[in-house]
Specification:
Elements: E1 8-17, E2 21-27, E3 39-42, E4 45-53, E5 56-62, H1 63-68, E6 79-84, E7 103-114, E8 117-123, E9 137-140, E10 143-150, E11 154-159, H2 161-166, E12 177-182, H3 184-196
Antiparallel strand pairs: 1-2, 1-6, 2-5, 3-4, 3-6, 4-5, 7-8, 7-12, 8-11, 9-10, 9-12, 10-11
Length: 207
């Protein structure tokens, strides 16, 4: 499990194509603390460390992951948001993030607020709209963000200077796509409502 608080920005040092997907060799500042099997979120997608050599570690993404996320478009020297899995005793500074990317979303607009603060607007396809609410949480490229505004086909988040400076958000431009993971609590609630419905009393009906 993760919290959506990016720990470091790594860089892609090598890419290998395999029969089942791709392997990425990543440079990261915490390389000496890693062990085989460790879980790390890469732009929000959880991948396991399968090899460690010198200053780099290797993870493998299967075709399903490559097609559902932006990892398939990574190139050499590309920066990537990294977060190691949370220890049991850690504070959850962002929100509960699984590292299971739901879809990718397009950047529609970026509005400077002052300094290095921005409002970013993203598309909101109808099938994902039930999971986005004002003041709710969403993980974009692995970054835990608060939704500031929701429209019919888009939503907006605020990015503070620290986030802008210490994640890949400073490189985002209109038309680029990001990995999106919607709040797991919202997804469970929506599933419950679809399965059982909500009667006039406001309580879920019995199965």
């Amino acid at each position: 499990m993760f919290s959506g608080i990016v720990e470091a920005v790594g860089t892609v040092q090598a890419i290998e194509t395999t029969s089942s997907g791709r392997r990425f060799w990543i440079q990261a500042p915490f390389i000496e603390e890693l062990s085989l099997g460790a879980s790390i979120a890469h732009n929000g997608a959880c991948l396991s460390v399968i090899a460690i050599k010198h200053r780099f570690y290797c993870v493998e993404a299967v075709s399903e992951t490559l097609s559902r996320t932006t990892l398939g478009s990574l190139d050499l020297q590309d920066p990537i948001n990294l977060e190691r899995s949370l220890p049991v005793t850690a504070r959850i500074e962002g929100h509960i993030v699984q590292g299971h990317v739901d879809t990718t979303l397009t950047v529609l607009d970026m509005q400077p607020v002052g300094g290095e603060s921005f409002y970013y607007t993203f598309e909101l396809p109808p099938e994902w709209a039930p999971f986005v609410v004002e003041k709710g949480s969403i993980a974009l490229d692995g970054v835990s963000l608060t939704v500031t505004q929701v429209a019919l086909e888009s939503f907006q988040v605020a990015v503070i200077p620290w986030t802008y400076q210490h994640t890949t958000f400073s490189r985002l431009k209109r038309g680029m796509r990001v990995n999106a993971e919607f709040d797991i609590l919202a997804k469970y609630l929506w599933r419950w409502a679809q399965r059982y419905g909500f009667p006039s009393s406001g309580l879920p009906s019995q199965p």
